[in-house]
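FORM 7B: Structural annotation worksheet

SECTION A. Query
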Amino acid sequence: MIATPVLSLSHLRKVYGETVAVDDLSFDLARGEIVCLLGPSGCGKTTTLRMVAGFVPPTGGTIAIDGASVAHLPPYRRDTGMVFQHYALFPHLSVAENVGFGLRSLGVPRAEREQRVRETLGLVELGPLAARLPRELSGGQQQRVALARALAVRPAVLLLDEPLSNLDAQLRVRMREELRGLIRRLETTTLFVTHDQEEALVLADRIVVMNRGRVEQVGPPAEIYEAPATRFVAEFIGLCNLLEGTVRAVQDGEVIVDTRGGLQLRVAGGPASPGERVALAVRPEQVVPAPAGNVPNRLPTASRHRLAVGGEELLMETHAAPAAGGVPAGEIEIALDPARLRLLR
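SECTION B. Predicted structure
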């Protein structure tokens, strides 16, 4: 029996006048899963998060939490907890009062409320700071207060709106490790928004890549990086070589592509049709010096890392220690594994 998703979005849509902010978006979150909405500014990721939270009404589609539709419910009845980008802490309330605010709004009895505040502050290691005001805290401490306030209500779904964007680079790295560890310990189902690719790759179990209101690809971080489904994903995530070309033939399970720069390359898989215009995507670290012997896609080059290959230019990135004598500075040969080339439309 397949378990009911904790959060399910089906054909979700949001239109502002003539602008389509979110268009036909569908995906599920399993219990304890961390899913990231990733994309450029204006792609609809924050609008999607706010529709789940109840701050923005959808134009169409459904939102369900634990199998029950919540699209018609106000935010406080949706069983979600949200951490805002700017934390939204009450400046006149202490740390403990901020963390207990949601519990008080829900009518949780005082004794239970105080116990849960103590427990949650302990989880984020802020117990000794319970009496302080927000202005007396560092940026990292304020972020943890906002997280504790969201977790104190024990939500079915935790919603994070770029929660680390206001921290400096070093603190952001440390806090994302702490955040992932805490979410893992509590097994909290989490949907978060970020434009930081590294943050998404480190934190998420799955990534939903969005562009112009639509989903480009959904998958684990490694799959998103190594097997981009579209040209946008290939170019948006990390560095990528894109070679434009035309399908010459399909033979023995491989697609033979003639690139604009005059190369003929073999690509594993398909489907493709002769004459079809395509693009080949290959990451810099997948461009490697050719081993001895007969290998497919062996190509002569004329430099070391930014390589001139026929009429194409490839970026090559290696992490292994060079062999004795290093890579010659003149002409070398490289190989492109057909299984690592991605055929895109």
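SECTION C. Observations
Residues 320-326 have pLDDT under 50 and may be disordered. Residues 245 and 259 are 4 Å apart (CA to CA).

SECTION D. Sign-off
Analyst initials: ____
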